[in-house]
Write a structure and sequence with these properties.
The chain is mainly alpha-helical. The chain folds into 4 domains: 225 residues, no CATH class; 106 residues, no CATH class; 35 residues, no CATH class; 37 residues. Helices cover 70% and strands 0% of the residues. It has 21 helices and no strands. About 11% of the residues have low confidence.
């Protein structure tokens, strides 16, 4: 956020609309119009019914920032401050949810930082200027926290669920709709199977829709006055942005690259699932918990199923660049694991388990990643053959205890040395005497020539010294 805070809101896809609407919305808000719908200065003074259709919550937040700062900041700088504030709030809400779900301060902090640092935020802010979607991802963890509190029948759980879900609907409707049929019901079903608690969660959702009706009803009732058919064009259809859509693979090179990356990500997801299963089933004699019983194993099975489902969704069905990938992994890898204390920090535990994996099981995965990486660079099968040849050469060097570091240095520095030698010989018109024309060059060259025979000469000399030492002792 530093560039925006220093320079103000930068140019992006939606920055003109964001700046114009923020200026007019906050001005009317400060004048006492709490829900401005008509933007009188848009379209050269003709006006625009923007907020009969566009969600108001992001601009309410900006209007509150305008009031708090006494409207001293210019609109570009104020909008940048509002965006930074929303990003901070997203970390706070994620930390609050994970802290209550995992009962681990470390997991909550790691999850909150990871959520705030998701690269998609950069695309959302600096390229797309998606102010509304940026706001929605600050509210989504709050909805999850409210679901948790509602399921556990804690105080203010139901009102928090209704309010947070209403705010999500009035922030970015596409994100709210997508989460309403994927993440939210999945988390509710994961948290409870009790009909009474499910009914409470459903009631919270219905109340949230009712609270958001002030925005939803006009937006739905006035659809005939806008060109909504443009939203169903091919460019805006979500199924055309999935990773595995054949229409996106027109170019063979692009197809090979996407296939390689998708395969690598799928293998990585599978590896994460394997690590999770290993952590679930592993019970050392010194472990503080006893061997898991049938009920706990069923609970662990649900977690593993969630891992596999989230990996499949993220890497096979997910629209390119959509940040729900990050949220799903936080949801299923941090938020949903609360029954036992076997994962206080997923990253540390996974790294430690990888170290303990037998080499026989780890080697095929390493080889597969190497093949995928080499093929992705140039899409040439011969590169894989060269990689295998050098792999066999490395194995032979290790088998015969040949030090590989000189070969690596020669491979890295050899090309530069050859180019320098050619340039030097060109300057001297082919005379090798130039290498001895400087004392420092002659000294280095003499040292190299003196060291060169040492591997052959040193062992006999060492053996002779040892033998003489043994004769003297006798």
């Amino acid at each position: 956020m530093a560039p925006s805070l220093a320079l103000g809101t930068l140019i992006s896809h939606s920055s003109p609309q964001n700046l114009t609407w923020a200026s007019q919305f906050s001005e009317q808000f400060r004048a006492g119009v709490l829900y401005p719908r008509w933007m009188p200065d848009s379209f050269d003074g003709l006006g625009s019914p923007a907020f009969y259709f566009y969600p108001p919550v992001p601009f309410w937040i900006d209007a509150l920032v305008s009031v708090a700062t006494a409207n001293l900041l210019s609109v570009p700088y104020r909008l940048a401050v509002t965006t930074a504030l929303i990003l901070f709030v997203s970390g706070v809400t994620m930390h609050a949810w994970l802290r209550q779900t995992t009962a681990s301060a470390t997991a909550a902090l790691v999850g909150a930082v990871a959520y705030m640092a998701a690269p998609y935020h950069l695309l959302d802010h600096y390229t797309r200027g998606a102010f509304a979607e940026f706001t929605a991802y600050a509210l989504l963890p709050l909805v999850m926290l409210a679901i948790r509190r509602t399921v556990e029948e804690r105080r203010w759980g139901l009102p928090l669920l209704a309010g947070s879900y209403a705010a999500l609907l009035a922030s970015h409707l596409p994100t709210a709709l997508l989460c309403s049929v994927t993440v939210i019901p999945a988390y509710v079903l994961f948290s409870t199977r009790s009909p009474a608690r499910l009914l409470r969660c459903a009631a919270g959702g219905v109340l949230g829709i009712g609270l958001a009706a002030a925005y939803l009803v006009p937006a739905l009732a006035l659809q005939g006055w806008i060109s909504s058919e443009q939203l169903w064009a091919s460019f805006y259809r979500p199924e055309n942005w999935f990773v595995l859509v054949p229409a996106r693979w027109g170019d063979p090179d692009t197809m090979r690259t996407i296939t390689s990356i998708a395969l690598a990500l799928a293998v990585l997801a599978l590896g994460l699932c394997v690590v999770a299963v290993a952590l679930l089933l592993r019970r050392s004699p010194a472990a503080p918990h006893p061997v898991a019983g049938p009920a706990e194993r069923r609970r662990h099975g649900k977690v593993v199923l969630a891992l596999v489902a989230s990996a499949a969704y993220a890497f096979a069905l997910e629209p390119l660049g959509f940040p729900l990938t990050t949220f799903l992994f936080l949801l299923f890898l941090l938020g949903a694991i609360e029954a036992r204390g076997w994962l206080s920090s997923l990253t540390i535990a996974a790294a430690a388990s990888v170290v303990k994996v037998p080499y026989g099981a780890l080697f095929p995965l390493i080889l597969l990643f190497c093949i995928i990486g080499v093929y992705t660079v140039s899409a040439n099968v011969w590169d894989i053959v060269i990689m295998l040849i050098f792999g066999a050469l490395g194995y032979a060097m290790k088998k015969f205890e040949y030090e590989p570091m000189p070969l690596v240095l020669a491979y890295v520095l050899g090309r530069m040395a050859e180019e320098s030698i050619r340039q030097t010989l060109l300057l001297s018109r082919g005379s090798a005497a130039i290498f001895l024309s400087r004392s420092i060059a002659a000294a280095f060259l003499g040292t190299a020539l003196a060291v060169l025979p040492l591997p052959v000469v040193a062992p006999p000399i060492r053996a002779a010294i040892v033998k003489l030492g043994g004769l003297e002792e006798t």
